[in-house]
Amino acid sequence: MKLHDLKPNTGAKRSRKRVGRGISAGQGKTAGRGTKGQGARRGSGGALYREGGNLPFVRKLPFKRGFTNINRVEYFEVNLDQLDNRFDAGAEVSPESLAAAGFMKDPADMPVVVLGRGEVSKALTLRVHRITKSATAKIEAAGGSVERLPLQGKK
């Protein structure tokens, strides 16, 4: 077999239908468009906003306000009362230790933020990406320390 012997399977290729070329061609007169009306006219059905007197679909939708910020950083949130229950005194709290304690699956997945709900009775060493002022005050009052990790670029 040579390249010039190759041809498509029988029935795989069809010539296009030439409409409006007389009654003997089978698609004459109305050319498959039925009879009179908007659908029979050239260029009909293009404008999405024209719906024949109905309220257009885009106006039925609730208003889409604002925009989606593509640089938004989503944090994994942890509160102080959760840390106080799970970690012993003097423990280091980092994304890796949170994953080991079952808080999150992958420490590289999301940056961690510590929020100030609850109280801390133990001295903990926090190494997180972000922490609120109230959480920092409570940790330092309990004798702990806070270190902020740098945010990694988006994947």
Structural overview:
The protein has 155 residues and is of the alpha/beta class. The chain has a domain of 73 residues: Ribosomal Protein L15, Chain: K, domain 2, CATH 3.100.10. The protein contains 4 helices and 6 strands, in the order H-E-H-E-H-E-E-E-H-E. The strands form 2 sheets. Strands 1-3-5 form a 3-stranded parallel β-sheet. A 3-stranded parallel β-sheet has the order 2-4-6. The longest helix is centred in the C-terminal third of the chain and has 9 residues. The radius of gyration is 34 Å and the shape is elongated. It starts with 56 loop residues before the first helix and ends in a 7-residue tail after the last strand. The model has no long low-confidence stretch (mean pLDDT 89).
Key words describing this protein structure:
Ribosomal Protein L15, Chain: K, domain 2; 17% helix; 13% strand; three-stranded parallel β-sheet; alpha/beta; elongated; 155 residues; single chain
The CATH architecture of the domain at 76-148: Ribosomal Protein L15, Chain: K, domain 2
Note the beta-strand portion: 5-15%
Specify the number of helices.
Answer: 4
Low-confidence stretches are none
Would you report the number of β strands? 6
Could you say which structural class the secondary elements and strand pairing correspond to? alpha/beta
Strand line-up of the largest beta sheet: 1-3-5
Q: Biggest sheet, open or closed, and with what strands and sense? A: 3 strands, parallel
Rg (CA only): 34 Å
